[in-house]
Amino acid sequence: MQVRKSAPRDRYQAFVRKDLMSLSQFHHLDPDERLAMLAVSAVLPFRTNPYVIEELIDWDDIPDDPIYQLTFPQRGMLPESDFDRMVDLIQRGAPSTDLKSAANEIRYRLNPHPAGQIQHNVPHYKGKPIPGMQHKYWDTVLFFPTQGQTCHAFCTYCFRWAQFVGIEDLKFSSHEADLLHAYLRENTEVHELLMTGGDPMVMRTTHLRRYIKPLLEPGFDHIRHIRIGTKAPAWWPHRFTCGEDADDFLRLIEEIRSAGKLASIVAHYSHPVELSTSVARDAVRRIQDAGGIIRTQAPIIRHVNNSASIWAELWTTQTALGCVPYYMFVERDTGAKDYFSVPLARVLRIFRKASRSVSGHCRTVRGPCMSALAGKVMIDGVTEVNGEKVFVFKMLRGRNPKWERKPFFARYSETATWLDDLEPAFGQDKFYYEDELQALLKNGFRQSVRGGKEIAHCGEVSRARRSV
Ligand SMILES: *Cc1c(COP(=O)(O)O)cnc(C)c1O
Ligand code: SF4
User: How far is the CA of 301 from the centre of ligand 1 (A)?
Assistant: First the structure.
């Protein structure tokens, strides 16, 4: 791949909906497209930056350019009647309060929190829920720092869109470093802190350090991995290459390494073009030089990366740069899902074709995988049993770890885009784990205090671990 020299940039600058008018590229779009963009961005979040606009998007290839599709709102992202309603309000010059209340009504119909994220994964400490944390799998605690609830640009398909548009009662985040540390100190089955967001790399390093540094001290020997999930290497690689804060972050990686722990950057790359600039490559090398390991993940998205050749190039490029392909996800059932989703049958075909066209070192990726209520469900294949064509699934991660790697079957479908769209195969009325899942979800919270000691949110999971 040809690497393009990047322009020097030392200051991050965001473009949001109100800046569209001042963007010269916006005025080159035809009037319909501009109106559509204003209508959709009144409902779904929009944010981008000059690096994305000038170095990642090819404006001669609009509207097909993948990064344009990935950051700029598109007409098809809203159901037709909602779209017409927003256009009408804008054309009538309706007051912004009207625009906002119409937008909110539409938002609540777009499944703002898929897979029971809020209700089911919040851990408890001293009998109280800890907001801003999720503990779904026994070994890993997710933390959503308040200062990291945005990104350097928004992906139009993002399942976290609800928090970006500030539907207030749906926000979940925390600035409580003390509670995080108290919880981790007590829950010694946890081996990993996963900082997520938004994007934790929008935070200054001093904030990151406040959460991470205490975990390098005695009392936290069980915390072996610090993972940061981020799209900054793609959206704003300057975060790792320019200025004192970038250097300070690299020092933090070194401190994690010196404490004998893994500093894992899980970078979200959607398309090979995100690795085609010199600054993107510098960012990768600087993180690695400091001792960080970069793993990569992305969902497969229509209009952006739904072809085998794109994935093959993505994995090949990443592997050559020393990054480790980690997850291919299926787009979640939220937001502009209909615009972006790719049927599971097609996802599998793309995955298999991409996988067999790359060499062994590039085949570290797990997936394709749905992050569902029960766990991370991998589409393992399609086969025929007694004349019935079926999907074979397997959980890579289960809310109950005993479910992991046990195959289960659904009747084949060319059009299904999520597990919920499918019927269990062989005439069964549910998948084998469903009763247990319901029981787990119902009982999990009541188990939060046992024997005077707080345990993970999900009693069953903790018990399962203790018995092995
Ligand atoms: C994917 C995920 C993790 C991490 O799982 P790994 O197998 O370690 O990548 C942890 N918590 C939640 C809620 C997740 O969805
Ligand atoms: S970078 Fe991640 S969290 Fe941010 S908008 Fe994209 S998918 Fe969502």
Answer: 20
Nearest CA to ligand 1 atom 12: 136
| Distance (Å) from CA 376 to ligand 1 centroid | 8
pLDDT digits (tens, 9 = 90+) for 315-358: 999 999 999 999 999 987 666 677 889 999 999 999 999 999 99
Out of 137, 223, 262, 404, mutate this one to test ligand 1's pocket (max ligand atoms within 8 Å of CB): namely 137
Q: Could you tell me where the beta strands, DSSP code E, fall in 217-292?
A: 225-230, 262-268
Structural domain boundaries in the chain:
15-108, 116-368
Q: Does residue 368 sit in helix, strand or coil?
A: strand
The DSSP result for 426-442, as a single string, is TT-SS-TTHHHHHHHHH
Residues in the chain: 468
Query: Ligand 1 — pocket residues by CB below 6 A?
Result: 134, 136-137, 140, 142, 194, 371, 376, 397
Is any atom of ligand 2 closer than 6 Å to the C-beta of 155?
Answer: yes
Residue-wise pLDDT for 167-226, tens only, equals 655 456 777 899 999 999 999 999 999 999 889 999 999 999 999 999 999 999 999 999
The ligand minimizing its distance to the Cα of 143 is 1
Cis (ω within 30 of 0) for the bond into 66? no
User: Which CATH number is correct for 116-368, 3.20.20.70, 3.40.50.1100, 3.40.50.11440, 3.40.50.970?
Assistant: 3.20.20.70
Ligand found nearest the CA of 135: 1
Under DSSP, the state recorded for 307 is S
